[in-house]
C-alpha cells in the first residue's frame, strides 16, 4: 500500500520535483504522506469517500478551506478526487497526555470555541450535518446487515441511545470538528492548529467537548473546568446533557471501530480499539445512570 501511495503522490501535478516521500503515521482512516518539493514540505492525504462512515471528500474539502481562511488549519494546496494536499506545519502533534496538561487544555477549549463561533462565517457552500444519534443508528443498521460479530449488543445500545438523545434535549447548532482525537491537534509553539475535517459538520457544541474528554481521558474536575470555560457558566447548567453526549460520543467511536473491523484495509488493530472504547462507554454509562 505504501509503495502504491508513494507512486501516486509522486505523480501529482502540483509538484515539480517531489522527493523524500515518507509515510506519516497516526491516520486510522486515510493514507498520509509527507512530500518535499523544492524547499517546502507538504502533507498528502489519500482517501476516497467512505460511505460506511459517512465521509464525503467534498465536505472535508469545504471545511478544510473554511478552516484555512479562519486561520485554524494549514492551507489547502491542491485537490483532486481521492487526494488532498496541505501545507506541512512544523509543529508538535499532541498525545493524550499533552491534551490533559492544564495550560494546553485551556488553549484547546479556546480553540474549540473559535471553531464553533468563527468557522461558519468562512463557509462558501453547503456542508453536511453530523447528528451523532442518526450517525449511531446508521452504524447499527449497517453492522446488523453485515452480520457483525458484535450484532448481539446492538439492540441494547440503540435502546440506550434513545435515552441519551432525550437527555441531551434541544441544542444550538454550530459547525463542529467532530473528531477531537489528540493527533488532530498541532502546536507550533505559538498557536494551536486543528486538522482532519473529514467528519466535520453542523452539530451540538457538546459533541466536540465530549469527544475531547472521552478521547483523551480527562478527569471529572477537568471536564467541569472545560464546561465552565466554554459556556462561561457553572458546569452544573449543562452537566447532564454533557454526560449524555459523552456517552453518545463513546458509542459512536465504538460503532465506528466495529464498522472498520469489517470494511477497513488499513493496518490497524480495530478489534482492540473496539474493546477499549466499549470499556470506556460502559464506564461512562454507569456514571450517567447515577446522575
UniProtKB/TrEMBL annotation:
Q: Does the keyword DNA-binding apply?
A: no
For this protein, the record's CDD domains field holds: ChoK-like
Asked if the record carries the keyword Zinc, the reply is no
Instruction: Tell me any Pfam family this protein matches.
Output: Choline_kinase
Q: Which GO terms describe its cellular component?
A: cytoplasm
- Select a single GO molecular function from the record's annotations and give it: ethanolamine kinase activity
Q: What's the domain of life for this entry? A: Bacteria
Q: Which InterPro entries match?
A: Kinase-like_dom_sf
Family matches, as PANTHER family: CHOLINE/ETHANOALAMINE KINASE, ETHANOLAMINE KINASE
Protein name per the record: Thiamine kinase
Tell me the organism: Roseibium album
Taxonomic lineage from the root: Bacteria, Pseudomonadati, Pseudomonadota, Alphaproteobacteria, Hyphomicrobiales
Amino acid at each position: 500500500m505504501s509503495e502504491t501511495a508513494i507512486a501516486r503522490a509522486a505523480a501529482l501535478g502540483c509538484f515539480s520535483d517531489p522527493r523524500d516521500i515518507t509515510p506519516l503515521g497516526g491516520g486510522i482512516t486515510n493514507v498520509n504522506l509527507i512530500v518535499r518539493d523544492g524547499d517546502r514540505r507538504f502533507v498528502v492525504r489519500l482517501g476516497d469517500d467512505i460511505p460506511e462512515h459517512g465521509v464525503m471528500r467534498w465536505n472535508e474539502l469545504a471545511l478544510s478551506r473554511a478552516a484555512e481562511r479562519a486561520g485554524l488549519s494549514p492551507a489547502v494546496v491542491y485537490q483532486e478526487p481521492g487526494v488532498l494536499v496541505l501545507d506541512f506545519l512544523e509543529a508538535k502533534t499532541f498525545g493524550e497526555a499533552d491534551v490533559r496538561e492544564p495550560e494546553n487544555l485551556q488553549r484547546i477549549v479556546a480553540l474549540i470555541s473559535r471553531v464553533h463561533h468563527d468557522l461558519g462565517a468562512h463557509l462558501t457552500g453547503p456542508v453536511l450535518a453530523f447528528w451523532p444519534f442518526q450517525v449511531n443508528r446508521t452504524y447499527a443498521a449497517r453492522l446488523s446487515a453485515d452480520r457483525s460479530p458484535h450484532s448481539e449488543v446492538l439492540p441494547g445500545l440503540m435502546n440506550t441511545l434513545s435515552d441519551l438523545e432525550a437527555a441531551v434535549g434541544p441544542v444550538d447548532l454550530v459547525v463542529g470538528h467532530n473528531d477531537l482525537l489528540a493527533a488532530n491537534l498541532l502546536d507550533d509553539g505559538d498557536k494551536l492548529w486543528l486538522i482532519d475535517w473529514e467528519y466535520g459538520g453542523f452539530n451540538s457544541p457538546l459533541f466536540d467537548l465530549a469527544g475531547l474528554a472521552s478521547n483523551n481521558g480527562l478527569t471529572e474536575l477537568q471536564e467541569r473546568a472545560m464546561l465552565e470555560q466554554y459556556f462561561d457558566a457553572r458546569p452544573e447548567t449543562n452537566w447532564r446533557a454533557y454526560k449524555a453526549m459523552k456517552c453518545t460520543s463513546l458509542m459512536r467511536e465504538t460503532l465506528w471501530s466495529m464498522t472498520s473491523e469489517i470494511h477497513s484495509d488499513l493496518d490497524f488493530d480495530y478489534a482492540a480499539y473496539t474493546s477499549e472504547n466499549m470499556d470506556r462507554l460502559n464506564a461512562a454509562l454507569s456514571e450517567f445512570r447515577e446522575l
